[in-house]
């Protein structure tokens, strides 16, 4: 396959995944058909099946693609050692994804809430070791007294809950904001607030 065809295929797959993310978020797995996704991405259904033969395959690709995005967000754990730098970078990346790709977070949350029925063992394989590596980094900070003694997993869960709230409960956030999405300034204040509370909670000044 030539480079041009590979690039076209990559762009089409990306478009399909984003469209599927939106439809799965709005209708859930059971309520979504391949026809719905084809309509959203404005492709003939036969073209959609060329890239993804079943709804199950497409749904898994959406979920695993999201996990890869979130792993990219967490590369700061490997790139930096300063807990203030790592966590400030991580929180901002997570918040930005909640704002730019809220549908993805909703699809992920719905799958997990239902016990990961379609991801199954793939969740263990994709998530477990990755999360344990992040916990080990936090544990190192605690043991070297760079942050206050905290349970590493609880700190990660707190960050995930605080940042993904702006995606999963975006409608509620808008309702409480005079039925308007957060402005750029409001969003930046939210990022700063979440960052400050997390950092101060582990003994760091933002």
UniProtKB/TrEMBL annotation:
Record-linked Pfam families: TetR_C_3, TetR_N
Gene3D superfamilies: Homeodomain-like, Tetracycline Repressor, domain 2
GO annotation, biological process: negative regulation of DNA-templated transcription
Natural source organism: Pseudomonas taeanensis MS-3
Residues annotated as transmembrane: none
Protein name stated in the entry: TetR family transcriptional regulator
PROSITE patterns assigned to the protein according to its UniProt record, in alphabetical order: HTH_TETR_2
InterPro entries: Homeodomain-like_sf, HTH-type_TetR-like_transc_reg, HTH_TetR, Tet_transcr_reg_TetR-rel_C_sf, Tscrpt_reg_YcdC_C
UniProt GO MF annotations: DNA-binding transcription factor activity; transcription cis-regulatory region binding
Keyword set, alphabetical order: DNA-binding
